[in-house]
Structures are given as C-alpha cells and as structure tokens.
UniProtKB/TrEMBL annotation:
Keyword field: ATP-binding, Ligase, Nucleotide-binding, Ubl conjugation pathway
Record-listed E.C. numbers: 6.2.1.64
InterPro entries: ThiF/MoeB/HesA (IPR045886), ThiF_NAD_FAD-bd (IPR000594), Ubiquitin-activating_enz (IPR035985)
Organism placement in taxonomy: Eukaryota, Sar, Alveolata, Apicomplexa, Aconoidasida
Pfam families the record matches: ThiF
The protein's enzyme class: ligase
Domain THIF-type NAD/FAD binding fold, chain residue ranges per copy: 6-275
GO cellular component: cytoplasm; nucleus
Entry protein name: NEDD8-activating enzyme E1 catalytic subunit
Pathway(s) the chain acts in: Protein modification; protein neddylation
Known catalytic reactions: ATP + [NEDD8 protein] + [E1 NEDD8-activating enzyme]-L-cysteine = AMP + diphosphate + [E1 NEDD8-activating enzyme]-S-[NEDD8 protein]-yl-L-cysteine
Amino acid sequence: MTIHKNVIVIGAGGLGCEVIKNIVLLGSRNITIVDPDIIEIHNITRQFLYKVDDVGKYKAIVAAERIKECNSNIKVEAITKRAQELPISVLKQNDIVITAVDNLETRRWINLIMRVIWEQLKNEWKDNGYNRESTLPMFVDGGSQELYGHVRVIKSEQEPCIECSMSLKMPLLAQFQTNPKQQKIVYGNRNEAVIKAIFNKATQYASKHHVDGVTMQMVQNIVQNREININTTNAIIAAIILKVIMTHSKDNFYFYSGEGQTVLDHFTMEKQRDCDLCNCQVATATVDESQTIKQLITQLETQIGCEDINITTEKGTLYMSTPKELRRLYSSRLETTISKMKDMIGSGLYITSTKQNKWYYIDIQYSTNDTRYKQ
C-alpha cells in the first residue's frame, strides 16, 4: 500500500522523525515539514534523521535534505516557522495534516484552522455545484510522552475536535508546603534568572571537567522536569498514525501505554455538547487596507448577523463595544485604517457578543497586493 497524497508534518522531533520516515517508505511523493527549532546535541539519540554535524541547523531543513538523500524524486518543502505563522493556503493544499508536537498551543491552533479550511472548501465546492466532503483534508494528531502515547483523528467539523478531549488531559496539581525543601525550590523552577544561573554553573563545571554538550535547552529540561521522549513509544505512535491514514478506520481515538502490561486501546469518541470550539462559527472576510476599523466592524456585524461585537486578535484586544466604559476607551480607534492596525489584526479575528451565546473566528483575507497575511 502507498500514500498518493500531499502530506504536511508539523513537528520534526522524536515522533516527527518516525512519522516522516514512515510516510516516505509508504511512497508519498509530496511532503511538507514544519518545525522552527534547531538541532541540539541531546536530540541526536532519538531523532535519527539528524547527525552530530547537523547541530545548530534547522530540523525541518535537515530532515528534508535527509529525505532527498534517500529518494531524489520526492518533492519536499521545509518550513522553519511556527505553525501559528503558516498561511492557511499552506495547510489547505494538503490532503493529510499531521501534528507531532510537544505542546498544546500548536495542537489547539491547528485544530481551529482546520475548521476554517473545511468551511472554506465546502463553500468553494458549493459555489461550483458539487460535493466533495468525503475528500476533506484529514487532521491526525499524535502525542508521545515517556511510555504513553495517543493518536487523534478528525476528518471534518462534524467529528469531535481536540477541545472535546481536553477533559482527558490531567491538570498539573501543586501541593503547597509551609516550609518547602531547598531542592523543590530549584526543581521545577521556571524563573529565567534562576535557570540562567544554573546554566552558568553547569557550563563552568563542564569546562573544568571537559564535558561537552551542556546547553540551555538541556538545563531547562532538567530543571523544569520535562518529560523524556522514548524511541519505542515514538515508533509505536508513528505506526498507528500511518495505519489510521491507510485503513480509514472509524475509530477516532487511540491510546497506548507501555508501563506494566502493554495496552493499545481504540474507540470512537463523541462530540462534547459544551465544547467551545465546536460551538464556534468560522467565516472568511475579505477586507481592504483603506477601510477604517468602524467600517470593518459594520462589515463583520452584517456578515455574522450580530450587533455590539467585541474583537480580539492573537496580539490583544482590537475593539470592545461592551461595557460602555470600554466602548468609550476603544472608540478612538474607529477612524483608524486597517493598514495602520494590520500587524495587530494579523490573519484572524475572534468575535464575541453579549447578544449571542456563541463566538466566531474570522479568517481575514486582504484585497491589496500585500501578501504578508494573504491566504
């Protein structure tokens, strides 16, 4: 069996390397690799696409080069940006979107953007008079931590999203003590100054005893008690991801545990009725940079059929209509043009209103020749 589809892999770490390798071996000829991180010496033991000579280089670029060494006929693109900085068009041109990241922020962002993509594609197909919902891009999320791993499969907005399974993520608990021990003050400390001081001491010790490979990343992993990434778990989760893609299973949640008795379970998860994202409406708005914020507000209120909207972006609050005190505060922006607020607006807006029990994500497309944020 082969994969004759366009695939994008977000994350080229331990799990990502396994996924990329599997995709190549199964015959995919068009792969995009996204990762903003550079290779560090401690990555080499479990991220097998990289060598010692690659330390200091971007993971995405080296992974792409390693693939080309194996098969020069593969079309592979390396992107050294954060997933949140990707234009929607990059994700939209792929048939399969795989996240193999180590943070919840990226998962949630891709989770949201996939809803935008599905909505855009269905509108485009509707305008052209045909239905291709069965060919919507598939979103597959994989996670690996120590001896545990999971795979989530989402094929459309009709299925449970990442937010629907947030209740399965155990919160970090803190136990307060009147007189904490000294080692607990250091262990788990996220203060930048403390970590830097520990790093300086560690490098002095390393230099004295001729120890190589002491990096800030390594110190952060130890001090902040970051979980270990294990090769075996990565390989198992990557294999499940490829099985899901190849077999089109109806199950949408897979769980692996290698601690004690090995467990690999899978089931069909249901949507959560109170899921914030599933209750979100997504839409696309085309705007001109010469428009004022007031004109933008009128356009959005007309488009979504709602008055007195509040608008926020990834960088903060753009406008508040309620309460009245905040409306007066933000009214000074009403005559400001979009061009002057473009860096704040970015590529998307979050809309809420006290008059509706829902929220909106608006994908912004600019009608000018400036392509910084054009999708």
